[in-house]
Amino acid sequence: MEELIRQNIISLKPYSSARSEFSGEAKVFLDANENWRDFVSDRNYNRYPDPLQRTLKKKIERVLSLPADHLVLGNGSDELIDLLLRIFCVPGKDKVLLTAPTYGAYQVFADINDVGVSFCPLQDDFGLDMQRMRTMCSMDAKQAPEAGIHKLLFLCSPNNPTGNSFQLEQIEQIATLFRGITVVDEAYHEFSEKASAITIMEKCPRLVVLRTFSKSWGLASARVGMAVAPLLLVKVMNKVKYPYNVSGVAQELVSKALDHAEEVYHTVEVIKRERERVSHMLTTFSSVKHVFPSDANFLLVRVKDPDALCTSLREQGIIIRNRSSMTGCDGCVRITIGSKEENDVLLQAIAHLEE
Ligand SMILES: *Cc1c(COP(=O)(O)O)cnc(C)c1O
Hints:
Blueprint: H1 7-10, H2 18-21, H3 54-64, E1 71-75, H4 76-88, E2 95-100, H5 105-112, E3 116-121, H6 130-142, E4 150-156, H7 168-177, E5 181-185, E6 207-212, E7 224-228, H8 231-240, H9 248-259, H10 261-283, E8 288-291, E9 298-303, H11 306-315, E10 321-322, E11 332-336, H12 340-354
Parallel strand pairs: 2-3, 2-4, 4-5, 5-6
Antiparallel strand pairs: 1-7, 6-7, 8-9, 9-11, 10-11
The protein binds pyridoxal-5'-phosphate.
């Protein structure tokens, strides 16, 4: 792991904030140049939050059974993706490996960091092309490190926008073969029946798993994502991230959401049932060619005319996502599963267009 990290990051001496140097009980805090008054609440918003979010991580450990010492929290998982790129990839030299299609943010953040991208296309059913994956992952083993290598591999499972999960045995095989860091983005894990890649982390020392509070937890606005990572990497990520990357307000919101875990799990079940209902209903329309199976809270749907469908629905105030320009997704739109009422509005609108 250590030889994969950029040299300047290894030698980096981190910024040490007032709040990270002092931990414990005190009655007078005059160390961080804060205002002594909170003008808007009685919740100490005048104080800097805990840079390592220790109280929240303990609660996450209790409620979600994720090991607190292996957690890094970020300003959305987007921050964690960017952080990994900045830690491992030398700009203008190193590269990352992505499947095609997948979540667009990986490429955007790679581009911003001047990190090259190689694509491994998925099969027609959006499963991993294991032969090609093995070739691409093992290529670097023979390359001179000076040439720049694939430092990160992003596997999004369940994958956005296709909705399918990759087989855990395949992820394990690839993560074992790949000499860089394999990042499994499980943003939609809660909507899936499949086991998490966290279960293979002991066998795969260079594996990082990402989760988020933006989807099943209903907190997209709070911007909180999680990485479950090996201890050495947790240390390095904490050193590189902004000291107060998760605001006190966001930490409070996540803590409150965790108090509602039962409701969250119940709603996830409702969404999964709705996913099956909407999927079935969509197949009855003549404008729909195929509905792909989904382990997430959205459906990828191949239709006869995606542009016309998106435009007509938009005119009625219904927004879906046109994904037809993505690799392997010709003719496809992505539809999020909403409430029963919202889904009915969508289904009725499509039925109406068929008349
Ligand atoms: C929505 C989504 C996320 C979540 O990003 P946040 O920054 O945590 O909101 C991460 N990965 C994928 C694949 C997503 O679709």
